[in-house]
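Deliverable D2.4 — example input (structure tokens):
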């Protein structure tokens, strides 16, 4: 296995067909993205059946088919709301993912949300025993739920390896709830999704350049752009001292936190930008400045599918 990267490449927008991100990219569009990632040493890919009802997995599986399996890390998810109603719902969804990804195991398999910790956590265990899953994680779980998952897994001789929650300068509820500290104290990786708030913290979008009309991102973020002007300015100034762009600085904030940021990539230039961030590190004063600017903005970006981790 090659060295694991410090950045995770996210494929939520792959196979979107315009439904959420407003793009209609096909597999050919993502081929140079994948190839650039290989060249840059970025080898962790995060996907899910829920991303385009398997379309994201299929694109990734096709592109990765010629890559030696041990050279990449594949992460995908079981989404309770999409289960088939059978006793083997978790196994069935995983098997579908494995087929689309053209592999016989996944490095990380996540329970996508906390719909029913007591029901779904035990159903992961047989798949761990079969070797179809190398590491198990949970996403969108609170600290008390994370601890309960650990108990269930430990009783069967396994451990929770990772937590994947929303974390960005605009949503630090997982940190404020003590989840980051708990993960670090217990050898659990923390994967941070929506680190760039779906493009909001890249500098590409502002009051004069809003998200494409009609997209879900426009509905969520366009009304919040005026409040983010000062934060974007702070990101730009802090980044300039490190030769980082606004987006890279937001990513570097996460790397400096000691978490694995998941960066959505839809172009080769996104990959190149992410690769540069892995070696970056912000100072304590710079981190404080960015967090104070974010707090001052007072923008709530907790998704409709999420909960406030502090509650």
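Example output (designed residues):
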């Amino acid at each position: 296995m090659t060295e694991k990267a410090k950045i995770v490449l996210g494929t939520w927008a792959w196979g979107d067909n315009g439904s959420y991100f407003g793009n209609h990219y096909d597999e050919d569009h993502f081929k140079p993205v994948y190839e650039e990632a290989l060249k840059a040493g970025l080898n962790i890919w995060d996907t899910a059946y829920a991303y385009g009802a398997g379309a994201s997995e299929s694109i990734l599986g096709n592109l990765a088919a010629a890559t030696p399996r041990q050279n990449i890390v594949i992460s995908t998810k079981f989404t309770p709301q999409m289960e088939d109603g059978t006793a083997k719902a978790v196994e069935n969804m995983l098997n579908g993912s494995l087929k689309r990804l053209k592999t016989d195991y996944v490095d990380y398999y996540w329970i996508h949300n906390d719909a029913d910790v007591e029901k779904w956590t035990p159903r992961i265990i047989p798949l761990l025993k079969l070797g179809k899953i190398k590491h198990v994680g949970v996403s969108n779980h609170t600290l008390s739920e994370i601890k309960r998952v650990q108990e269930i897994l430990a009783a069967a001789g396994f451990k929770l390896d990772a937590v994947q929650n929303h974390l960005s300068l605009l949503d630090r509820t997982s940190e404020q709830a003590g989840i980051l500290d708990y993960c670090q104290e217990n050898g659990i990786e923390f994967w941070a999704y929506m680190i760039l708030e779906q493009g909001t913290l890249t500098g590409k979008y502002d009051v004069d350049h809003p998200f494409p009309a009609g997209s879900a991102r426009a509905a969520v973020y366009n009304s919040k752009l005026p409040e983010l002007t000062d934060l974007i300015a702070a990101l730009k100034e802090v980044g300039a001292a490190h030769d980082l762009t606004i987006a890279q600085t937001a990513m570097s904030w996460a790397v400096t936190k000691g978490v694995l940021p998941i960066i959505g990539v839809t172009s080769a230039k996104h990959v190149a930008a992410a690769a540069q961030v892995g070696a970056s590190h912000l100072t304590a004063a710079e981190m404080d400045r960015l967090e104070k600017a974010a707090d001052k903005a007072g923008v709530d970006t907790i998704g409709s599918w999420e909960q406030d981790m502090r509650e």
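The first helix runs from residue 27 to 40.
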